[in-house]
Amino acid sequence: MAHPNDVTLRSFIPVDTASDFPIQNLPYGVFSTSESTTPRVGVAIGDSILDLAVLENEGLIDLAPARDIFAQASINAFMGLGAEAWSRTRARISELLRHDNPELRENELLRSRALVPMARAKLHLPITVAGYTDFYSSREHATNVGVMFRGKDNALQPNWLHMPIAYNGRASTVVVSGTKIRRPRGQLKPPDAKLPSFGPCKRLDFELEMGVVIGQPSAMGEMLTERQAEEMIFGFVLLNDWSARDIQQWEYVPLGPFQAKAFATSIGPWVVTREALQAFRLHGPVQDPTPLPYLRQVQPNNYDLHLDVTLRAAQMNAAVRICQTNFKYMYWSSVQQLVHHASSGCAMNIGDLLGSGTVSGPDKHQRGSLLELSWNGTEPVELAGDITRSFLEDGDCLAFHGWCEAEGYRVGFGEVEGTILPAE
Ligand code: CA
Description:
CATH class of the largest domain: Alpha Beta
Structural class: alpha+beta
Shape: globular
Oligomer: single chain
Distance between the termini: 57 Å
Number of strands: 26
Helix content: 10-25%
Bound molecules: calcium ion
């Protein structure tokens, strides 16, 4: 049987070559419809969603002794079955969708129950987020921010080249794409003000990131090898780490971001499996100084994954692209982040979400936040006509897209989108 990543595979469901969801992808999500309002697990194929709860119930996907794994409002139970079950299930779904397999293709009744037009589905948060940690692993991003706030000579803090820096974020406010984002309030103290005040954030920003979804746990006290960490990663999602720069500036000393990042984090509805991204792996930037032994890696743990950001102000008809970059630039890989996360003895859980950190590249148009694109407001970004942005305004709609390109198809992530609502 052909591997589900085989480039020659075709589905009996027509898939446009520009679609994010060919048969070689098969990302997992959670959806419901107006006819059937109970959220359940599906995979995206072309413009449709394949309802895995229906297929499991009909015995076409067998996860025994586990039962009702897909008739659930998150993919956590499925992730808990482990890497062997992930691979076996993906291979079976691929087989069922293949153009030369009549099992589903010729069963009209089953097809009508199991295939849902994506346009008619409501997409939900795909995972129950156990914990959320946000890293800071792009050298270009950390350098840009450092230059703006500390000057060229002290841009990178002394620890940055020795370990993946991170803070523990909030799982409680991770929301799915499409959720509107209320402008946060907080303590503000501009540098020229004598005393802080409390009010709506005036410097609201986005951070373009990828999220890693952890599919297997590690025990408290246990360190991870590169191989073990890799095998715990179920897949990746688009992630927007909404950031209140003015709240952050006043609160972050000495323990790092708190309320500036806690009000919302948006993730895409589709979790693309690590297995589907296999062909797009590559080595990251050379790490000099050589990391300590526990952080050294031999595998190509980065990904050639294109990313872009579009912004549409309320008075604009069409969105404008404001950033185009690539996940491959990250200095610390997701595997190194996970190894480091567990290195003290910190237990990892099924459903943990690790933000990569803002993905910025070496060029100006590759900067993954407005803070960098507008250089802290000194070079406003031109959108259309006389509309410019230093930071986000009410009514702004922001969307990220991510995709890996192969010959004749792409393995994509859909989008993560959010519109800013005025403060309450
Ligand atoms: Ca971040």
